[in-house]
Every structure is written in structure tokens, then in C-alpha cells.
Write a structure and sequence with these properties.
The complex is a heterodimer of chains A (119) and B (288).
Chain A: H1 25-36, E1 42-43, H2 44-51, H3 55-67, E2 71-75, E3 88-92, H4 94-106, H5 108-117
Antiparallel strand pairs in A: 1-3, 2-3
Helix pairs in contact in A: 1-4, 2-3, 4-5
Chain B: H1 3-28, H2 36-68, H3 74-83, H4 88-102, H5 107-122, H6 127-153, H7 161-183, H8 186-219, H9 236-243, H10 246-256, H11 258-272, H12 275-285
Helix pairs in contact in B: 1-2, 2-11, 3-4, 3-5, 4-5, 4-12, 6-7, 6-8, 7-8, 7-10, 7-11, 8-9, 8-11
The chains are: A mainly alpha (119), B mainly alpha (288).
Chain lengths: 119, 288
């Protein structure tokens, strides 16, 4: 699953009345990808792969969204068998889900593009 | 052997090596001290004021780097280094990125993830340390100008080297301590101290270059130490060239470099001992 965010398909930043902060296309992509998962938890690397974005792009976005209360975070149990530490999990909070819905409503065409791009 | 004991041994070895270098300089220098007592006194002074901070700073930095770069894989060590000492509010994210890295099996994907995440981690939260650093550097430069003008006003051309070598040290130490204490992070303190060092170095030497011309015109002496040139005449070019000589720049660097590390270590240690910080850090890490 991949979102293509090429220069030709560059998306303008979205502004909404309730959320005056401008959101980058990458932030919108992360929000919609998480919205696509509904209440299921996602891993950071899985988001990177699904969206075709680098970790250096996705993690700062996740940090900001969590700080603004749009994300819930949690830690999964460590993988004792494979000797791997617990991974961080992310899903939209109620506020984040509202924002994602609002983004879809505010700009249906853009959201439709992003939804189609998540293959 | 414990890591702490290794640190002490390394510090002692470094101090002994520096003392040996200082002894050689004191004996071999053209203007060397005449008596053995004077040589010993010089070596003790140099070792205390230059050697001890250098050894302490180096040991502290090596210990921090060693702790940050644990791990079998290069990618793990790179990300460990980039996320080391993040402020408490960001530590959870450093842990998250490191844990995620270890879940990636493909080596090239793991390296790409580590590079990208490390770059992101290095960009986190620089605003306050940079503000502290800029202010400190400008204060050091302003102090240099003030001391120069004061000495000219009271007609005492003794040079401003004593100020430029030692006063900025206090400012750099304070900047690093403040940076570390306010962000509760060694890394923030080190960033503030190191950037302050470079701003101060540029500012102090820029002021010295300009003031060198004034000192040469008024008294015919070098701005750094107030000495007269052996030829008797000192032109503006010679005055500026002396003020900006690589030897003086190197000397300042050697004297200044340990103090951002020491300030950051003290600032981080002070904040870690504060009980409220431990509670805040725990709260941050259990956020869900």
C-alpha cells in the first residue's frame, strides 16, 4: 500500500475552521492512513511502508499529532521469543478521528485521491 | 573492571600524559623557567587549569558516547547515538524509533530507517539551546570589547588575553549548564555549549581583530598580551595577523572545549537528582 506524493501531484495544505494549523500533505496522508485502520493500532514502520514515506518524515508527524491530542499511543508487549523490545503503537484519538473526517469532508477530491492512492 | 573505574583510569592516564607534555613545553620553550621550582609550578598550573578540565571532559564524553552506541548493528548504534540524551518529553520517541528499528529484518531497509530516523532525531528541539548559545557567544564578544575599551580608557595596555582565555570559559560552562538543566538533558546542554563556543570564538576573534588595530595605533603593542614587537614598529596588518594567529585560536579552543561538556554533565546531573523530574519522566513514558 503506497501513497504517491510526487511533485506533480503535490497537494496544497489544508486549512479548516476548527483546526487553524496548516497540515502538510504528508500529515494528511498519515491521518487518513490511521483513519483507514479505524480503532486498530498501527506500527510506525508499517505506516512508513504503507505511505511510502521515510521514518524521518513519519515520526515527527506522529510526535506532533500526539502532542496535539490527535493520536493515542501505547506500547505492545515485548517479543521475548525473538528477543525484540516492545514497539510503539499508534491510532487516532476521538479528536484525531474527527479531524480525519473533517479533512475528508472539507476536500473530498483530495481525500478521494489519497484514499485511492493507499492501495 | 567497572565502567566507572575504567573512566577514572583513562582520566588519570590522560592527565599524566598532558602533564608530561606541559613539562616538556616548560623545559624546551625558548623562554623557559630558570629553576626547577618554576618548572614544577608551571606544570602544576597547566595541569590544573588546562589538563584537568580536558581530561574530565574527554572521559565524560567518551562514557556518554559509549552508553549511546551500544548494540550489535551499525544502524542500531547510529540511531542510539542520534537519540541519546533527548529531553524527557522526547525520550519515548527515541525509544520507539529504536524498538521499531529492531523489528526490521531486511538490512538495507534497516539502514535506511536508521539514517532517516537519526536525521529526524537530530533536528528535534533546538530552539532554546540555540537561543542560549547565541546570547552567550554575543556576551563573550561584548565582554571582549568592553575589557579592551576599559584598558584603553585607564591607559593600561596589558593585553586582553587573560580575559579572552578564561572569562568565556565561565559563560560556556553556564550556557551548557542552563541548556542541560532547563531541558533536563545532557544533549541539550552540550548543543547549547558547543554552539555557544563557536559563536563566542567567532565573536571574540572578530572583536580582537578590530581592537588589534586600535591597540597598535595607540600603544604599538599586540592586543592579546600587550607585548611590543621585536622590530619596534607594529602596523595594522601585523597586529591583526597576530590576533588571528592559529596558535591563539588553537589555545582558546583547548582552554574552552572542555567546559561545555562539564556544564552539560553538571546541568543534567542536577536535574536528574530532582525528585519531581523523575516523576515527570515516568509520566511521559507511560503516556498512552
Amino acid at each position: 500500500m503506497k501513497v504517491i506524493l510526487s511533485q506533480n501531484l503535490y497537494l496544497d495544505r489544508i486549512t479548516t475552521m476548527r483546526h487553524p494549523r496548516r497540515l502538510s500533505p504528508q500529515t494528511v496522508a498519515v491521518l487518513l492512513a490511521l483513519a483507514d485502520q479505524a480503532s486498530r493500532w498501527s506500527h510506525g514502520y508499517d505506516l512508513c511502508r504503507r505511505l511510502g514515506l521515510k521514518a524521518g518524515t513519519v515520526y515527527p508527524i506522529l510526535m506532533r499529532l500526539a502532542e496535539r491530542g490527535h493520536l493515542e499511543t501505547s506500547w505492545e508487549q515485548p517479543d521475548v521469543v525473538r528477543g525484540r523490545p516492545a514497539r510503539h503503537l499508534y491510532r487516532l484519538s476521538l479528536d484525531g478521528a474527527k479531524l480525519a473526517k473533517e479533512l475528508q469532508r472539507t476536500d473530498r477530491g483530495r481525500a478521494a485521491f489519497l484514499a485511492r492512492a493507499v492501495v | 573492571m567497572t565502567s566507572r573505574r575504567c573512566g577514572w583510569l583513562l582520566g588519570a592516564a590522560m592527565l599524566a600524559a598532558l602533564a608530561a607534555v606541559f613539562a616538556w613545553i616548560a623545559v624546551a620553550a625558548p623562554q623557559s623557567a630558570a629553576t626547577a621550582a618554576q618548572v614544577v609550578s608551571k606544570v602544576v598550573d597547566f595541569t590544573l587549569f588546562i589538563g584537568a578540565p580536558l581530561a574530565a571532559g574527554t572521559v565524560l564524553l567518551i562514557r556518554r558516547l559509549k552508553a549511546a552506541t551500544r548494540g550489535r548493528l551499525g544502524a542500531e548504534r547510529l540511531l542510539g547515538l542520534a537519540t541519546a540524551g533527548l529531553p524527557p518529553a522526547r525520550q519515548e520517541w527515541g525509544t520507539a524509533m529504536r524498538a521499531e528499528l529492531l523489528s526490521i529484518d531486511d538490512p538495507s531497509a534497516r539502514r535506511a530507517f536508521a539514517r532517516s530516523a537519526a536525521f529526524a532525531a537530530l533536528r528535534i528541539g533546538h530552539a532554546r539551546p540555540l537561543a542560549i548559545a547565541g546570547t552567550t557567544g554575543l556576551l563573550a564578544a561584548a565582554g571582549t570589547l568592553a575589557v579592551s575599551r576599559l584598558l584603553l580608557a585607564v591607559d593600561k595596555p596589558i593585553g586582553i588575553g587573560i580575559y579572552t582565555m578564561f572569562a568565556p570559559v565561565l559563560l560556556l560552562f553556564a550556557a551548557a549548564l542552563l541548556g542541560a538543566a532547563t531541558r533536563r538533558s545532557f544533549r541539550s546542554g552540550l548543543e547549547a555549549g558547543v554552539v555557544a563556543l563557536f559563536v563566542a570564538l567567532v565573536g571574540v576573534f572578530a572583536v580582537m581583530a578590530v581592537e588589534a588595530v586600535t591597540w597598535a595605533e595607540h600603544y604599538g603593542v599586540y592586543v592579546f598580551d600587550g607585548d611590543r614587537p621585536s622590530t619596534g614598529h607594529l602596523g595594522p596588518g601585523g597586529a591583526v595577523g597576530d590576533a588571528l594567529s592559529p596558535f591563539f585560536i588553537g589555545l582558546h579552543l583547548v582552554l574552552w572545549v572542555p567546559w561545555p561538556v562539564l556544564g552539560a554533565a553538571l546541568g543534567a546531573a542536577v536535574r536528574h537528582r530532582h525528585p519531581a523530574d523523575g516523576a515527570a519522566a515516568r509520566q511521559g513514558s507511560s503516556r498512552s
